[in-house]
Specification:
By secondary structure, the chain is an alpha/beta fold. It has eleven helices and eleven strands. It binds 1,3-dihydroxyacetonephosphate. 1,3-dihydroxyacetonephosphate (13P) binds next to β3, β11 and α10.
Length: 283
């Protein structure tokens, strides 16, 4: 079934697990990510940047995720990641995305509240869930770098006020994670997450999941993280595998011989993550 994030995170809340949300960068890798969810038997969220949505085509992405979800009995969400413009969000919703993120984290608090609220008012009557962000998450995304020294952690009281004023379904929190952190790993601020979780009653989201140690997952899930974003780890592994194969394959050989192993590589990673996201040691 094709779902929105509110629906699948309600299930995650009941079962104390988290929903894996994986960035796809092309159409090739998408069925493999979805297949991983079918094999593990958990819901999944697919997310695209605005740039990827424009590149592939919004309605093509909607068709692929919807038809896989319906034909293969997988609970799947299609989510727009880090959109900053109302027009980009409207385009995704009108094309059939089931969830969107408005990222007003670099705006003054009041402006972030007002703009997020306007998105919620457009999305909710159309059964589309809305994620917003408070605080800034460091790292690099789509080529834009935020230095760790500029990253501002989420203030729990601001988060409570923000959620009440906007009516968002999920809140992305800045607790020390960074986008695009592949080799090194981050130290998540669990005491801060606990304080946010104790005053905010919507599901919380971790961005920059590639840079989080797997041993930290239970700590995050047990303290309210219901959506867990992973992008860079898939991208790097897909590119590495495809790059090696493309460099050594004759140009008249079907390119599927180079692409299928790259897809299989990331399917294994997604299956591994989804298994951990079930949080089975904490039943
Ligand atoms: P990583 O690319 O660091 O895993 O982060 C993904 C993400 O948070 C997308 O919004």
């Amino acid at each position: 079934m094709y779902r929105n994030l509110k629906e699948v995170t309600e299930f995650a809340e009941k079962t104390n697990m988290t929903i894996g949300s994986f960035n796809t960068h092309n159409l090739e890798m998408l069925p493999s990510i979805l297949r991983a969810a079918k094999n593990v038997g958990t819901p999944i969220s697919i997310q695209t940047s605005v740039g990827t949505a424009e590149y592939i085509g919004h309605s093509i992405l909607v068709s692929v995720v919807k038809s896989f979800a319906n034909n293969e009995m997988v609970e799947a969400v299609l989510h727009l990641d880090h959109a900053k413009d109302f027009d980009d969000i409207k385009k995704a919703i009108d094309a059939g995305y089931s969830s969107v993120m408005f990222d007003g984290s670099d705006l003054p608090f009041k402006e972030n509240v007002l703009k997020t609220k306007a998105i919620v008012e457009y999305a909710h009557p159309r059964n589309v869930s809305v994620e917003a962000e408070l605080g800034t998450i460091g790292g690099t995304e789509e080529g834009i770098t935020i230095e760790s020294s500029e990253a501002v952690l989420t203030d729990p009281e601001d988060a409570k006020k923000f959620v009440e004023l906007t009516g968002v379904d999920l809140l992305a929190v800045a607790i020390g994670t960074n986008h695009g952190q592949y080799k090194s790993k981050t130290n998540c601020n669990i005491p801060l997450l606990k304080r946010i979780h104790s005053v905010v009653d919507v599901p919380l989201v971790v961005h920059g999941g590639t840079g989080v140690r797997e041993s930290e997952y239970p700590n995050l899930i047990n303290n309210g993280i219901r959506k867990f974003n992973v992008g860079t780890e898939l991208l790097i592994n897909w590119n590495e595998e495809a790059k090696n194969l493309f460099s050594e394959t004759p140009v008249d050989r079907s390119l599927r011989h180079n692409v299928i192993p790259a897809n299989e590589e990331i399917q294994q990673i997604v299956e591994h993550k989804l298994n951990l996201f079930r949080n089975l040691d904490n039943m």
